[in-house]
């Protein structure tokens, strides 16, 4: 912020004046008296022989002096100073076009290798030139400039350009989200040293002051040693609102390993042997070992168990873990040679619109959030949903009984689905806790609500976002949950606190989705600014910044081993990231519409995706890992190869007309997908 | 690129100042100067765009493609602006367009509601509750062909398949190993036409065992005695995706079935077969164009055949003719193109039947119904000119000495049918002032009858606007009740059996085929509903006859249950000379391979033993020659 206090003014005013004229920041201080400014204006007018205006201004100023001034002094002061600034470089607007074409011809004249790298700067230069013209109220020039060059920009920037095109007046700039982002941060460009030197020489030789200004003020050029990157390499990682991620942003060590599991092996063995009999243990032992080994071995990449305080494990959780292991043993393989079996749950008659679907970890429950503010929980197993007995009835239960949990439940309330009402806007996300006792949901009404799945009531309403909350997610270890929203913050909550315990901010636009890392130490957020950030819960720092999406990020998923992150969104491309290096590993293209759901198979070998194009697609992650070049130096961007071969797609299965909002793998690797039946088919168009 | 240009157009678009003035006036501010209006327009355009951009976020999170009014409301709320109340709608709001005086206007139609009416009206039905339904999207990578899944081959693919046999393998996903051709043949071919002619791959139509079973189940149910099973089977035909592979079989089944049962005068089975045709036409996933050459003659036969039942004087074969005529009308609407000229050719056939001196009255009745279902244009140009002639014929029959009661009934029915089809057309054509004399002058003896019919039509259409549609849907009687056919259900056994005397039988649809070959009449393209004529609710034929029908075979009393016994699937190589299958599918020059499902084993009521009365037989085989083979097999086993 400190560096760019004079972003757009090419003012030749005095140093003192310049410092006050913090354009866009809108916090000018009124320490220069009104008269001084007026004098400056009048002087200017006189110099230019604009007598009519001068007199008019004099007359007006005097009137203003009397009544209006006291309130608006600071405002008008800055306005005038900028007006002056613009006048000063009266010929500028037309010159901008020349500068821009000059820059373009220079880039064209470079060697092919450098041409590709250098052409990246055209977009930010274009944007800032345009904004500068708008700011200086050369509206017609700005529009002409925009018309002439906007089509030349990369396709994936067109959406931003469209938004930018609406800004044609100085007044519009205030409060415009996109503008604020461009103003507040630098556009990051990675460039090889050779290309950078070329550019530097050109700028020095030609002395184009405005161009130099823009590059200095608004661009951050991340120079690396090595050969220049190719067009594909550049395109793979650019596209975010502000170019690419800096290399420095991804230097911090991330503990992506899984937490060491507490010792529950003992009960597992005890439990296992008696019922299974003689023949099974032999078979099971070798199979079980890799599972247990992974947990018991000390992973150097794993964070300490107590890095983040986690809740104590209860007996019930241990039981759950044991059944999870058991089921995991029966896991089937899914991959290229073992095509999956997909069960599809269609939500029927959802006239009000389904906004989110989620499945519990053990695949026994499915919840759907609706646009009419309700949440419905369905059971997918034969166990019906029951609620707890009333307090009076509970009092009569023998608390020492073995089946006390079973006795607590009221069989009369057993149904196949339960309705939760409480929100006052579309429910954009609802997620189960791992133990299936709680459900957390977020809504357009700005609240996050915690629901009990024992009593089927709302327990807590967490207020803090005040703006629509787009996504929410429970920690895999319970207790914590995180929510993200329109207010560009992610908030970490503990279920027993009514205020957030961490607030993460840094994205330039809405945070659209959030996911907990499997070890609960990190969260990943995807945003409308097309960046993905990984945050450390311990200190609230952003530890990874991924750029490469060309549209807002709507879905994230960590691989089960915690090493990789998959992401997708409006641009319908699925990207796979290596958390360890912060590099992009693979681009999976095939979807034709927004992807809303991603899920790794339980063994991590396969990634499934689904979205608005009514299809479920399966991608080969193992192949990506096999083909990755382990020798490549990840610190040099040009040596990183992004796997975008079409052979990564294992299969694609289309639904009839149902968008896929949720994909889930059961513990046995059966695939479950879900979505609402589209109504458009049934309804006839308005004829009658 | 196109998209880019499109975007370019949108950039810089703005509300016109005039709109601002109009809006200002609507809130009571008048006389805004032009400058102010244009400034306001600029700013409000910007604000509007901002709001829409914001609303798009809500659309994304609502997981939708279409921006809704609720999204706009939410976007306003997020920006701390009071949302607009009362603009909620679940549907898209169509803009109406009006122009006049050189001005164009887009507006949203807002109807005025009578509050009293809403209060007094009955409450709308409660919508069905939200439910969860599970199905297999794929099983080990293979997508099952169930209604929940998209059809394995879209109509477009099926269409391509005609032109390019390679597409087929793509559809089936499991390319079958091509049969290794005999070395001799290859040699032989290569000698003669080496590279000159590109030999088209033979596409083989082998059905999987499941498909064979399905075919068997469906065909048996469709023509079997069990009405409940039949409706299930018809439902399946009408809705199941992925039937396209069996379609050649079904079409052969129907066309052969019609041929044989026309000869046998088995009315019930003809009706069942027509219902199958209707179901198949209702199935949206099938590309029927390939099989029209089988369906059309079959349906045509059921319309114009001289005799469709054993006793024309008692049985109601009129309903079958009406039903088939509706099917034909639908086929013409759905499939007639400028290249195949179906409608023109069919129309010509019917017209010939009407004009023919020798044609039976029943045939003429069918032709009238067929033309009547083609729509008012056809009626006007092809039916009306002949009314007088028909009238004469009818008159002769009715007033002449009673030779044949069947003819008399036919004549009566023709009159009714003419009244039904002509009255809506005449109503539009003739003014209310036209007198009986005018009618008699034009239509001869039928004039007075038509006059009264038109008069009645006028009256009733005053009451109900859509009466016309109802009439077109077809009721000859004043009660506007469906024509009912009556045949005893339990007795309705099916014979698809080629009698050896097929050539001499009177009812063979010779003229039908002849007619189709002659193109020429301009086809009249009509708009209309794309679906087959469906009545509200299930179309039902109540079938009954006079109880007097003798049962000349003890076994015939017991319906040959299709499910009883162990069904066998018999693959029969047909040794039939082509002449015996007049409209057989154009097959590959090799002997056609036809799968014939035999029914219960050990059933002795085979045609030979039934003393020539094949009425009482169960469905046997499509080809008579094979019957003996099967029989032998049965005996052997």
Write the layout of secondary structure elements.
The complex is a heterodimer of chains A (688) and B (637).
Chain A: H1 15-20, H2 34-47, H3 51-66, H4 69-88, H5 92-109, H6 112-118, H7 122-135, H8 139-149, H9 158-165, H10 170-173, H11 177-184, E1 187-192, H12 193-206, H13 209-218, E2 219-224, H14 231-237, H15 265-276, H16 279-296, H17 315-329, E3 342-348, E4 354-359, E5 365-370, E6 374-379, E7 385-388, H18 391-395, H19 404-408, E8 409-415, E9 417-421, E10 427-432, E11 438-443, E12 447-452, E13 457-463, E14 469-474, E15 480-485, E16 489-494, E17 502-505, E18 511-516, E19 522-527, E20 531-536, E21 542-547, E22 553-558, E23 564-569, E24 573-578, E25 583-589, E26 595-600, E27 606-611, E28 615-620, H20 621-627, E29 649-654, E30 662-665, E31 671-676
Parallel strand pairs in A: 1-2, 3-31
Antiparallel strand pairs in A: 4-5, 5-6, 6-9, 7-8, 10-11, 11-12, 12-13, 14-15, 15-16, 16-17, 18-19, 19-20, 20-21, 22-23, 23-24, 24-25, 26-27, 27-28, 28-29, 30-31
Helix pairs in contact in A: 2-3, 2-4, 5-7, 6-12, 7-8, 7-13, 15-16
Chain B: H1 2-10, H2 17-26, H3 34-61, H4 69-78, E1 95-100, E2 103-108, H5 115-120, E3 131-138, H6 155-163, H7 166-172, H8 183-192, H9 209-223, H10 227-239, H11 247-264, H12 267-282, H13 292-304, H14 317-335, H15 342-355, H16 361-372, H17 376-383, H18 387-399, H19 405-429, H20 436-443, H21 447-463, H22 467-474, H23 510-517, H24 554-557, E4 569-573, E5 593-597, H25 624-636
Antiparallel strand pairs in B: 1-2, 4-5
CATH architecture annotation of the largest domain in chain B: Alpha Horseshoe
Distance between the termini of chain A: 59 Å
CATH class of the largest domain in chain B: Mainly Alpha
Q: List unreliable stretches of 5+ residues of chain B.
A: 1-9, 167-195, 465-637
- The best one-word shape of chain A is globular
* Secondary-structure class of chain A: alpha+beta
Strand-residue fraction of chain B?
Answer: under 5%
């Amino acid at each position: 912020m400190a560096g760019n206090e004079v972003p757009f003014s090419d003012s030749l005013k005095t140093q003192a004046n310049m410092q006050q004229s913090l354009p866009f920041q809108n916090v000018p201080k009124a320490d220069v008296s009104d008269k001084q400014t007026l004098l400056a204006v009048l002087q200017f007018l006189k110099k230019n022989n604009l007598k009519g205006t001068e007199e008019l201004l004099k007359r007006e100023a005097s009137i203003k002096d009397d009544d209006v001034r006291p309130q608006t002094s600071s405002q008008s002061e800055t306005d005038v100073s900028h007006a002056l600034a613009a006048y000063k470089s009266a010929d500028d607007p037309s010159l901008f076009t020349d500068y821009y074409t000059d820059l373009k011809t220079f880039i064209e004249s470079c060697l092919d290798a450098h041409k590709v790298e250098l052409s990246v700067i055209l977009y930010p230069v274009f944007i800032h030139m345009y904004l500068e013209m708008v700011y200086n109220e050369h509206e017609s020039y700005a529009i002409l400039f925009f018309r002439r060059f906007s089509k030349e920009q990369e396709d994936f920037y067109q959406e931003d350009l469209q938004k930018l095109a609406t800004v044609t007046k100085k007044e519009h700039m205030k409060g415009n989200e996109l503008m604020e982002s461009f103003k507040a941060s630098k556009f990051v460009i990675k460039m090889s040293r050779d290309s950078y030197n070329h550019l530097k020489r050109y700028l020095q030789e030609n002395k184009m002051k405005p161009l130099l200004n823009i590059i200095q003020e608004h661009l951050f050029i991340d120079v690396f040693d090595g050969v220049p990157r190719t067009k594909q390499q550049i395109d793979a990682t650019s596209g975010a609102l502000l170019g690419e991620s800096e290399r420095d942003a991804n230097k911090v060590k991330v503990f992506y390993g899984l937490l060491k599991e507490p010792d529950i092996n003992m009960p597992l063995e005890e439990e296992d042997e008696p019922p299974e009999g003689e023949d099974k243990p032999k078979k099971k032992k070798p199979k079980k070992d890799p599972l247990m080994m992974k947990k018991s071995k000390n992973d150097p990449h794993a964070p300490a168990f107590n890095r983040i305080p986690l809740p104590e494990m209860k007996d019930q959780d241990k039981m759950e873990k044991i059944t999870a292991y058991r089921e995991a043993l029966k896991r089937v393989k899914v991959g290229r040679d073992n095509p999956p079996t997909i069960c599809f749950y269609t939500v029927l008659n959802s006239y009000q619109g389904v906004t989110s679907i989620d499945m519990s970890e053990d695949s026994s429950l499915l919840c759907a959030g609706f646009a009419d503010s309700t949440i419905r929980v369905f059971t997918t197993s034969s166990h019906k949903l029951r609620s707890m007995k009333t307090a009076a009835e509970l009092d009569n239960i023998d608390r020492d009984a073995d089946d006390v949990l079973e006795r607590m439940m009221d069989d009369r309330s057993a149904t196949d689905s339960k309705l939760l009402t409480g929100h006052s806007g579309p429910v954009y996300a609802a997620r189960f806790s791992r133990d299936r006792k709680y459900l957390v949901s977020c809504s357009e009404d700005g609240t996050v609500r915690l629901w009990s799945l024992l009593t089927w009531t709302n327990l807590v309403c967490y207020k803090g976002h005040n703006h629509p909350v787009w996504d929410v997610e429970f920690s895999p270890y319970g207790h914590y949950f995180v929510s993200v929203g329109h207010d560009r913050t992610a908030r970490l909550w503990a279920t027993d606190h009514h205020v957030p315990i961490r607030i993460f901010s840094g994205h330039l636009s809405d945070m659209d989705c959030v996911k907990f890392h499997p070890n609960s130490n990190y969260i990943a957020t995807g945003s409308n600014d097309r960046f993905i950030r990984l945050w450390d819960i311990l200190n609230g720092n952003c530890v990874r910044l991924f750029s490469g999406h060309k549209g807002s990020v709507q879905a994230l998923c960590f691989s089960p081993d915690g090493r990789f992150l998959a992401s997708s969104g409006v641009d319908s491309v699925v990207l796979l990231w290596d958390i360890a290096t912060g590099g992009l590993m693979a681009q999976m293209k095939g979807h034709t519409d927004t992807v809303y759901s991603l899920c790794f198979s339980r063994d991590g070998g396969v990634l499934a995706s689904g979205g608005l194009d009514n299809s479920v697609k399966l991608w080969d992650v193992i192949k990506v890992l096999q083909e990755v070049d382990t020798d490549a130096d990840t610190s040099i961007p040009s040596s990183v190869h992004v796997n975008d071969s079409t052979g990564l797609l294992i299969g694609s299965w289309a639904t009839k007309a149902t968008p896929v909002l949720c994909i889930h793998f059961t513990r046995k690797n059966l695939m479950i997908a879900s979505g609402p039946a589209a109504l458009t088919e049934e309804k006839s168009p308005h004829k009658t | 690129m196109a998209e880019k240009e499109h975007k370019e157009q949108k950039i810089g678009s703005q509300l016109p100042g005039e709109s601002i003035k109009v809006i200002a006036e609507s809130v009571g501010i008048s006389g805004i100067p032009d400058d102010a209006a244009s400034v306001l327009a600029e700013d409000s355009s910007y604000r509007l765009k901002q709001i829409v951009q914001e609303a798009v976020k809500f659309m994304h999170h609502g997981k939708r493609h279409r921006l809704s009014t609720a999204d706009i409301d939410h976007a306003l709320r997020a920006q701390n602006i009071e949302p607009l109340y009362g603009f909620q709608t679940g549907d898209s709001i169509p803009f109406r367009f009006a122009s006049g005086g050189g001005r164009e206007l887009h507006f949203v139609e807002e109807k005025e509601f009578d509050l009293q009416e809403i209060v007094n009206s009955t409450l709308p039905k409660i919508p069905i509750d939200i439910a969860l339904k599970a199905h297999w999207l794929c099983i080990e990578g293979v997508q099952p062909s169930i209604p929940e899944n998209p059809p394995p081959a879209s109509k477009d693919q099926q269409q391509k398949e005609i032109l390019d046999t390679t597409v087929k393998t793509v559809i089936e996903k499991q390319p079958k190993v091509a049969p290794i051709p005999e070395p001799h043949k290859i040699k032989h071919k290569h000698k003669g036409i080496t590279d000159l002619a590109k030999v088209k791959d033979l596409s083989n139509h082998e059905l999987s065992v499941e498909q064979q079973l399905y075919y068997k189940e469906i065909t048996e149910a469709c023509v079997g005695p069990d009405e409940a099973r039949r409706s299930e089977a018809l439902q399946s035909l009408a809705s199941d995706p992925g039937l396209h592979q069996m379609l050649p079989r079904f079409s052969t089944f129907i066309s052969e079935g019609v041929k044989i049962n026309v000869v046998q005068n088995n009315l019930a089975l003809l009706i069942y077969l027509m219902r199958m045709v209707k179901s198949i036409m209702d199935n949206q996933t099938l590309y029927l164009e390939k099989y029209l050459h089988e369906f059309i003659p079959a349906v045509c036969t059921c319309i114009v055949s001289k005799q469709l039942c054993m006793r024309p004087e008692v049985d109601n074969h009129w309903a079958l003719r009406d039903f088939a005529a509706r099917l034909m009308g639908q086929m013409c609407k759905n499939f007639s193109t400028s290249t195949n000229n179906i409608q023109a050719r069919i129309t010509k056939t019917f017209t010939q039947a009407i004009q023919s001196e020798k044609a039976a009255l029943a045939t003429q009745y069918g032709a009238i119904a067929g033309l009547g279902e083609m729509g008012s244009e056809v009626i006007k140009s092809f039916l009306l000119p002949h009314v007088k002639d028909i009238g004469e014929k009818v008159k002769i029959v009715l007033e002449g000495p009673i030779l044949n009661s069947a003819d008399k009934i036919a004549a009566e029915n023709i009159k009714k049918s003419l009244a039904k089809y002509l009255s809506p057309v005449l109503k539009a054509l003739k003014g209310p002032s036209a007198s009986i004399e005018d009618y008699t002058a034009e239509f001869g003896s039928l004039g007075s009858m038509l006059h009264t019919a038109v008069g009645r039509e006028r009256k009733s259409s005053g009451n109900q606007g859509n009466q016309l549609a109802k009439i077109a849907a077809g009721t000859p009687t004043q009660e506007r009740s469906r024509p009912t056919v009556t045949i005893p259900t339990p007795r309705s056994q099916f014979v698809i059996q080629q009698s050896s005397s097929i050539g001499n039988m009177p009812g063979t649809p010779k003229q039908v085929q002849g007619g189709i070959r002659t193109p020429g009449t301009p086809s009249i393209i009509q708009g209309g509903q794309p679906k087959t004529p469906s009545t509200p609710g299930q179309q039902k034929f109540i079938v009954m006859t006079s109880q007097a029908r003798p049962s000349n075979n003890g076994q015939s009393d017991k319906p040959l249950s299709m499910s009883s016994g162990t069904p066998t699937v018999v693959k029969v190589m047909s040794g039939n000379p082509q002449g015996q299958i007049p409209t057989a599918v154009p097959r590959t020059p090799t002997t056609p391979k036809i799968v014939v499902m035999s029914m219960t084993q050990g059933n002795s009521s085979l045609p030979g033993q039934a003393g020539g009365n094949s009425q009482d037989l169960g469905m046997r085989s499509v080809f008579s020659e094979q019957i003996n083979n099967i029989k032998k097999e049965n005996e052997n086993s």
